[in-house]
Amino acid sequence: MKTRLTAVILSALFAMGFTGKTYAGGETRLDDRPNLTVRGEALLKVPADQMHLNIAAVTHAETSALALDQNTALMQNVIQALKKIGLTEDEYQTGQFQIEPVWSQRPRQAPEDWRPRITGYTVTNRLAIKTKKLPLAGKLIGAATDAGANSIDSIVFDLADPRKYRGQAIRDATANALADARSLADAASVKLVRVLTLSLDNAVATPFRVGAESFARGAMMAEAEAPPISSGEVTVQAGVTLVYEIGE
């Protein structure tokens, strides 16, 4: 796992020799205290350990019943092919199923009484795959295509437990902010009194996506030549803002 840590100083506000206004009861309000504000960021590159892939069978026929029968047979072939590659039943499920009528197109010189009519039906059965068997990515696409699948969406590689790395990114970002606060205070010859506020600006994991155009040609290869698909890395990043009270 490669880690790249960065810290960006947003601002540093100093009021040398200023002790703040005192209000009733001897209270000094937070906004009146001299302070130093820094922002820390962390960026982690983590190897993906999970894959999402949508494979669909799309059929067209004059009647909905015929289109449905053709689609059912086609999808059964696709599923059997995926099982031979090594996919298990708990790694896929029906993601979307729909039957849509196909309407006739209006001709250029249509008569006044022209009305569109149904010329056929389209059935789409989409299979949603989620698996940790990343080396099978190319083989799954090749097997599905050979079995008749005619629609393959982009592949998404992500993390099965993103919170594990999210916490690490937050810790690294906070450590960066603390280190920069100390360096800035030392350079300005002021003391860090205490932390006034500490906020998390963001902490997200960005999946690695492979567009369909990246493997469309590869899927047309012979069965023995599965398209090469690299799982890549997931980007996990976090940012924190730290406000210190400072003194002379």
Describe this structure in a few short sentences.
The model is unreliable at 2-24 and 216-224 (pLDDT under 50).
- Provide the helix percentage: 10-25%
What is the helix/strand order?
EEEHEEHEEHEEE
Question: Structural class, judged by helices and strands?
Answer: alpha+beta
- What is the mean predicted local confidence, pLDDT? 83
> Which geometry do the CA atoms define?
elongated
Distance from N terminus to C terminus (CA atoms, Å) equals: 42 Å
Low-confidence segments = 2-24, 216-224
Regarding quaternary structure, what we see is single chain
Radius of gyration: 29 Å
The helix tally amounts to 3
Tell me the number of strands.
10
Question: What labels describe this entry?
Answer:
248 residues, alpha+beta, 4-stranded antiparallel sheet, elongated, disordered N terminus
Can you give a write-up of this model?
It is a single chain. With 248 residues, the chain is an alpha+beta fold. Helix content is 23%, strand content 41%. The chain has helices spanning 64-85, 137-146, 162-187, and strands at 2-12, 35-47, 50-61, 92-103, 118-131, 151-152, 155-158, 191-206, 208-210, 233-247. Strands 3, 4, 5, 6, 7 and 9 form a six-stranded antiparallel beta sheet that branches. Helix 1 runs antiparallel to helix 2 (137-146). The longest helix is centred in the C-terminal third of the chain and has 26 residues, at 162-187. It starts with a strand and ends with a strand. 26% of the residues are buried. Residues 2-24 and 216-224 have low confidence and may be disordered.
